[in-house]
Amino acid sequence: AVATSSGRPSVAPKLTPHGWASGVFEQVVCGEDVARGKPAPDIFLECARRCGVAPSRCLVVEDAPAGVEAAAKAGMRVLAVPSLRGAEEAYRTAGACEVLKSLLDARPERHGLRPFGDLVGGVAAPVEAWRVAGEVIKGFGRGGKDIGCPTANLPTEALEACPGATSSCGIYVGWASVGDDHTVHKMVMSVGWNPFYQNERKSVEPHLLHTFAEDFYGAELRLVVCGYLRPELDFDSFQALVDAIEGDKANAHRVLDLAPFSGFAADEYLRPPTKKSL
């Protein structure tokens, strides 16, 4: 069900572009259906009434503190996905039982519901594949030297210019090819701010699961991203960071052999551009 303070005329246009949404929601309760909007609990209580479910059995996903407060007042459990970076505490204060960095991190079994059935290999969430390419640039210089995980960094602008690319930070998996080489490699990629190192700028850091004889700065790197492993995390120690990265590499190597991820290795986007003869 959807419980929104928006007026009904504005709700349909928001749901219509998402074809999967039609038929998914049994109830849509809007601002004009109740006397008081959020942060009052009215809209969530009406939603529960229409669904025939006790409020205590409801799990709400919210992106605004007022919505979190409203659902908590209704006696419901609330997952918060903050729309603003760095505002996590405000959502906890409003009553969220869990604050997520992305909806991809939601695990309903933590709240007594059935787990998602589409996690590949039990660890990776499929995402609508997005494709990005750019020139490999020098990064922070610590991947290979300090961590043992050399990365082929892309400019953040490449991600921003990519249709369909996610804005959610985290660790992703997919496939990669470099320059004029037709060989396709497995890859695991960090997108975000790297909280352990407290980066001041967002970075896109793919690690190709292959040992190259030499660096390829300046070459075109093509990526097809198809799965999500986990959110960005801070770590208590350098060794904990290294252990997490090694786990990510192992998981990526394993799940990319499984459907549907394995099929993306043949994606046309990974082929080098055809050179025109003069």
Short description, anyone?
With 278 residues, the protein is an alpha/beta fold.
Rg (C-alpha, Å): 22 Å
Instruction: Write out the CATH superfamily name of the largest domain.
Output: Riboflavin kinase-like
- In order across it, which strands form the biggest sheet? 6-10-7-8-9
- Derived structural class: alpha/beta
Percent range of helical residues:
10-25%
N/C terminus separation? 60 Å
* CATH level-two architecture of the largest domain: Beta Barrel
Number of helices: 7
Report low-confidence residues grouped into runs of 5 or more.
none
One letter per element, helices H and strands E, the order comes to EHEHEHEHEEHHEEEEH
CATH class of the largest domain: Mainly Beta
Number of strands: 10
What is the fold-level CATH name, i.e. the topology of the largest domain?
A: Elongation Factor Tu (Ef-tu), domain 3
Morphology: elongated
- How big a fraction of the residues is strand? 15-25%
As for the number of domains, it is: 2
Please, could you describe this protein's structure?
- One of its GO terms (biological process) is riboflavin biosynthetic process.
- Residues 125-257 form the Riboflavin kinase domain.
- Pathway: Cofactor biosynthesis; FMN biosynthesis; FMN from riboflavin (ATP route): step 1/1.
- Keywords: ATP-binding, Flavoprotein, FMN, Nucleotide-binding, Transferase.
- This is riboflavin kinase.
- There is one protein chain.
- The chain is of the alpha/beta class and 278 residues long.
- The protein has two domains: 2-100, HAD superfamily/HAD-like (Rossmann fold, 3-Layer(aba) Sandwich), CATH 3.40.50.1000; 125-270, Riboflavin kinase-like (Elongation Factor Tu (Ef-tu), domain 3, Beta Barrel).
- The protein is 22% helix and 21% strand.
- A five-stranded antiparallel beta sheet has the order 6-10-7-8-9. Strands 3-4-5 form a three-stranded parallel beta sheet, covered by helices on one side.
- Helix 4 (88-94) links the parallel strand 4 and strand 5 (98-99).
- It is elongated, with a radius of gyration of 22 Å.
- 30% of the residues are buried.
